[in-house]
Amino acid sequence: MSEFVRLEVKDGVGTIWLERPKMNALNAQMQGELGEIAREADARDDIAAVVVYGGERVFAAGADVKEMATLTYAEMVSRAHGIQAFTRELAAIGKPTISAITGFALGGGCEVALATDVRFAADNAKLGQPEILLGIIPGAGGTQRLSRLIGPAKAKDIIFTGRFVNAEEALAIGLVDQLHPADEVYAKAVEWASQFVGGPALALRAAKGAVDRGLEVDLQTGLEIERAEFTGLFATDDRTAGMTSFVENGPGKATFTGS
Q1: For this structure, is 111 an active site residue?
Q2: Which residue among 149, 165, 194 closes a domain?
Q3: Which of 33, 89, 131, 229 is catalytic?
Q4: Among the options 19, 111, 169, 224, which is catalytic?
Q5: Residue 72 forms part of a structural domain
Q6: Residues 213 and 94 in one domain
Q7: Contact yes or no for 137/92 (Cβ under 8 A)
Q8: So where does this one cross the membrane (predicted)?
C-alpha cells in the first residue's frame, strides 16, 4: 500500500492523488510510490486517461530538502537515477495525462506537471524551478522538459533565476494550457480526460509515442517513427471499426474496444 500517493478510478478516468501534508514535498518514498502508481495506471485497462492532482491547496511544493541536505556526493550518485525515475514513469504512461495544478508547483512539483501531456492550473497557481537558490539545478527532468515545452531562452530565465511564475505568465508562455478558478480546476481536468473514455486506446498510445519519441530525434527519424506507428495500427480492431463506421455512418460514430 502506498502511504503518500493514491490511485482512484471513476468512470474510466484515473486520478493520481498526491497526499503528503502539508505541501506534498516529494521525499524518496513518495517519489517511489508515484512511479509505482504511474506504472499501475499505464497497465490498467479500466483507465483511459489520467489526472494528477495534489488537492485544493497545493500541487507539490518540491522535493524534500531536509531529506537531501545531508547527502554526500557519493550518496547522491546512487540516488540520482531514482530522482529521475518517477517522472520518467509518469511521462511513460501511454494514455493522455493531465496535471490539475493548485497553489504551488515548484521544483519537483513542477517537474511532475511537466511530465504530463497537458496542464490546467488554478488562476492563483505559482510554478517554478527554484533549485538554483539551493545551489543545485533541477534533477527530475526540469532542464530538459521545460526547455522543450517553452523554449530554451524562457526556460533558462526561469531556471537561472529560480523565480516563481504566476498563472497568467505560465499561460502566456505555454507552461500551462488553461486557467480555471481553484475550486474548478480538478473538475475541468477530469472533463478533459473523460473525452478519451471509450476511445481508440492503441491509437492514442501510438500518437503519444510518436510525438514524444519524435521530439528526441531528427525529423527524418521522427517520420520513420510515425510511419511505423501509423502502419501498425492497421493490425488493430479499432482501425477496422473506425474506418468501417466512417464509410457506413459518417465521422465520429465508431465504437472502439481498445484492441
Answers
A1: yes
A2: 194
A3: 131
A4: 111
A5: yes
A6: no
A7: no
A8: none
Number of other CB atoms surrounding residue 107 within 10 Å? 28
- Cβ(158)–Cβ(146) below 8 Å: yes
Active site residue 131: yes
Could you report the per-residue pLDDT of 107-121, keeping only the tens digit for each?
A: 999 999 999 999 999
Q: Cα–Cα distances in Å, from 153 out to 147, 204, 212?
A: 8, 31, 21
User: What type of residue sits at position 33?
Assistant: E
* Residue 211: CATH number of its domain: 1.10.12.10
Percent of the chain with pLDDT over 90: 95
Helix (H, G, I), strand (E, B) or coil at 3: coil
**Containing structural domain, residue 55:** 5-194
- Name the domain count of the chain: 2
Q: Are 173 and 158 in contact (CB under 8 A)?
A: no
Query: Reduced to 3 states, what is the DSSP secondary structure of residue 122?
Result: strand
Q: Is residue 254 part of a domain?
A: no
Q: What is the pLDDT of residues 131-178, one digit of tens each?
A: 999 999 999 999 999 999 999 999 999 999 999 999 999 999 999 999
